[in-house]
Amino acid sequence: MYAAIPQTLTFAEFLAWDDASGRTFELLDGIPVPLSEPNANHEDLIERLCTYLETYCQDQALPYVSRQSKQVRLKTAPGDREKSRKADIVIFAKDEWQRMKTNSSSAAAYVPPPGVIEVVSNNWKDDYLTKLAEYEDLGVLEYLIIDYAAFGGIRYIGSPKQPTITIYQLENGEYLPGKVFRGEDQIASILFPGIPLTAEQIFAMSR
Q: In what residue span(s) does the Putative restriction endonuclease domain sit (predicted)?
């Protein structure tokens, strides 16, 4: 179902738009599309991981800012209606975040962010297929898929299914085959080098 609006919106117009329902939306071909609200486990993992990453960036003097539930403007051809994704966690370049602080516009990924993290829910194909292609096309350097409840298909998380983190890293405009992490595997990230987190420690953030 689509929200009732008088016309299609640009990304900037969409960020300023509010249907007064309290719902959250993404932009699909200029039309706001309502999203399902995450469950409590999903939301806890996002909040705790985002806080951890923000502290890690500050402690390690990394040039990134981690923020949860931010809109990411997707790549569209000139003249096409704009699209967005509301990503679970967006890793912004610190310089870009500082730039946004100098104006009154809504905080969002107007330019391709270095990283995006999505936590998988029932609509797992969006994360493993659709969003993967969208973030690759956009030029996101690192895309993390956190499947804490083993929702994904066996071709992604194996059989028997088990909680899995898959990290895609961009090289020459294409994502390399995803690196898979489970259990006590330590996460290997190009954005957060040496981060002392195992897959299981991230999954535990949902509990």
A: 12-199
DSSP one-letter code for 129 = I
Measured distance CA(106)–CA(126) in Å, rounded = 25
> Each residue of 108-136: b (16+ CB within 10 Å) or e?
bbbebbbbbbbbbbeebeebbeebbebbb
Domain coverage including residue 108: 38-206
Q: Which residues of 139-156 are buried (b: 16+ CB within 10 A; e: fewer)?
A: ebbbbbbbbbbbbbeeeb
pLDDT tens track for 121-162: 999 999 999 999 999 999 999 999 999 999 999 999 999 999
User: What tokens appear for 96 in the block?
Assistant: 């870009």
What CA–CA distance (Å, rounded) separates 96 from 67?
Answer: 13
Q: What is the pTM of this model?
A: 0.95
